[in-house]
Amino acid sequence: MPGRAPSPLLFAALGTLVFLNVYAPQSLLGTLAGEFHAGAARVGGVIGATMLAMALASPLAGVLADAWGRRRTVMAAFALLVLPALLATQAHTLDALNAARFAQGLLIPGVMVALNAYIGEEVSPARRARALTGYVTGTVLGGFLGRFLAGVIAAHAPWQAAFAFLAATSLAGALLSTRLPAETHFRPSRDARGVLRALGAHLRNSSLLATCAVGFLLLFTLVGTFNTLTLRLSAPPYGLNTAQTGAVFAVYLLGVVITPVAAPFLAARGPRTGLLTAAGASAAGLLLTLAAPLPLIIAGVAAAACGVFLAQAAALNAVQRHVTQARSLAAGLYHLAYYGGAAVASVVAGHIFEAALWPGVVALVTGSMLLAALVGAVGWRPRP
């Protein structure tokens, strides 16, 4: 029954544990570039490989969760995530590391997509906003902790130890996910024709398509910024080590504050207003990072990240508003676009950084954030 739904803290914990895997190597990119003698675009593939796999696997994870069950999908994905993390500890080439990261990306959507659908079905409407906010807050915390802890570990041990840590946390996620109550509202959907009908309906949903485009641009902005920021700060005149660059990602902790505050704001003003507000904050913050002093760079990145967090909450709110059936598949399509943006940014932003340094990256990501605002403003307009 909905009244038996677990505490939002459980959803927050599961969100944290799965997102530890997503961005953890980002604070290690400077070290990995030196280890494997790779440029910005090539070493960015350590993040891009996972993002590409997450994009490709997200719709399939939605179909699997609709057929097999949300709870079982979450548990199995967490358990399997232990294996590629262990394989990464044995990688002796960048290609081998990217292969392990790609495998991680194939499994991560099994947690994300299924858990979102579980919340939509098994948590009562009165508690759903808190549960979803708890999950999103956990993903923000996991995004920070993955980067920060990987950086701290690599500052005191070989970089492979960071991936051993990820294996242990994925095992913890598998154990913790057993605390999700058994589903009572889930009805398996194993009809291939039904899946195709639902897919067709989603592809005709202009509001959902606009949301997918917004998601693509949001993570393009975030990953393009942080991949190259790590390389900028590890080079002269800053020369930060992995622990110090990992600490810069403390700006992600602002998302733990912004995301819960966003829920009543979005409920009152709607996702369209939320996205426009977010885009303005991000654009201003990104322009501030053009300054040389490190405190101003960090302040600008913090404002940019807060804008993206608010925009992401607005986009998830828009998915909930505009989709009433086959929610796992809809969530999978959104994540296909969202992480596709990250995969593209990992390569494109690296090339821009090599060609035009940080000012070129700022122009790129500011443009993508403003384009996201335009797409959402048009695509989310109320319709008769």
Contiguous uncertain segments of 5+ residues: none
Secondary-structure element order, N to C: HHHHHHHHHHHHHH
Overall shape: globular
CA(first)-CA(last) distance: 35 Å
Question: Into which percentage range does the β-strand content fall?
Answer: under 5%
SSE topology:
Elements (H helix, E strand, L loop, with lengths): L7 H16 L5 H8 L3 H4 L1 H24 L1 H19 L5 H29 L2 H32 L3 H17 L15 H12 L2 H29 L7 H7 L5 H35 L5 H29 L4 H53 L5
Helix pairs in contact: 1-6, 1-7, 1-8, 4-5, 4-6, 4-14, 5-6, 5-8, 6-14, 7-8, 7-11, 7-12, 10-13, 10-14, 12-13, 12-14
Describe this structure in words.
The radius of gyration is 19 Å and the shape is globular. It has helices at 8-23, 29-36, 40-43, 45-68, 70-88, 94-122, 125-156, 160-176, 192-203, 206-234, 242-248, 254-288, 294-322, 327-379. The longest helix is centred in the last third of the chain and has 53 residues, at 327-379. Helix 5 (70-88) runs antiparallel to helix 8 (160-176) and helix 10 (206-234) packs antiparallel against helix 13 (294-322). The two termini are 35 Å apart. The protein has 14 helices and no strands. The mean pLDDT is 88. The chain is mainly alpha-helical and 384 residues long.
